[in-house]
Amino acid sequence: MKESLLDVLCCPLDKHDLELEDAVGDDDVESGTLVCTECGERYPIEDGIPNLLPPDMREETPA
Amino acid sequence: MDLAERRGMETDVYQPATDSRLLAEAAIDRLSDRPTGRVLEVGTGSGYVAGQVRSALEWDVVASDLNPNACLEARDRGLDVVRGDLVEPFGAERFDAVVFNPPYLPTDPSVERDDWMEVALSGGPSGRAVVEPFLETVRRVLRPDGVVLLLVSSLTGMSDVTELAGDAGFSAIAVTTESFPYESLTVLELIQ
After folding, report:
1. Number of domains in chain B
2. B92-131, pLDDT tens digit by residue?
């Protein structure tokens, strides 16, 4: 994901801002973690795609 | 990724169909009248509609989907992609437009299959299981003059959808309609 995408994102739970940690890749972040500045919930970035599903939905995958 | 895996992926990501083309054309037509801005496509699937809009207009385009395989396909089109549930991961007043071709087929829960294609198509018993929470939440991410372009099928109940939109503070205008033997497809423009 482009680092500028951070401007439009928020924590899906409490709608507070996110901070980028452990970013791999420069302007185009390949992997890393988005951390909520309020509740501290962590959201992974994998294959350049931030996964901003709430933790309880993250593993819910149909067969 | 080899071809077999690629084929397997295609079966669980909704591929562009008549509804996608209708929505893409309507979105490009309506947004081209507005100042350049930022548009979000929710439930992007293959990324077709978002990709068409990005090719036609100078707008910033963001695409999101619940399905991880759809996210990968949309990313491979070069789109900025976020995995998320409707507009939940987006900040307040960030978008000038939101575009959505929702799952809308009314389905009997007893015969629903449990896979991503079902998630892409099924709107629950009413056909409105996804449209309803979308309409209740989308306004938060729109700028004050932002619009929604929503594809609605006659199977989903047009008057029910416009009523839900009204409850959420929108007025609805039908911008295009195409009729088929089994349903008609309409793109609604929702204005705040």
Report:
1. 1
2. 999 999 999 998 878 777 766 678 888 888 888 888 889 9
Count residue pairs from A and B with Cβ separation < 8 A.
71
CA B111 from chain centre, in angstroms, equals 24
The span from the CA of A3 to the CA of A23, in Å, is 10
At A6, list the tokens. 């951070």
Q: What tokens does B8 get?
A: 């397997």
Q: At what angle do helices B48-56 and B18-31 cross, to 10 degrees?
A: 30
- 């090719």: which residue's tokens? B55
* CATH number, domain with residue B120: 3.40.50.150
As a whole number of angstroms, the distance between CA B181 and CA B170 comes to 30
Query: In which domain, by residue range, is B164 found?
Result: 3-191
In chain A, residues with a C-beta closer than 8 Å to the C-beta of B83 are 49-53
Task: Give me the interface pTM, i.e. the ipTM.
Answer: 0.94
Rounded to two decimals, the pTM is 0.92
List B residues 118-137 in contact with A (Cβ-Cβ < 8 A). 118-119
Domain boundaries, given as residue ranges, for chain A: 3-53
Cα–Cα distance measured from residue B64 to residue B79, given in angstroms and rounded to the nearest whole number = 10
Structure token digits, residue B187: 């793109």
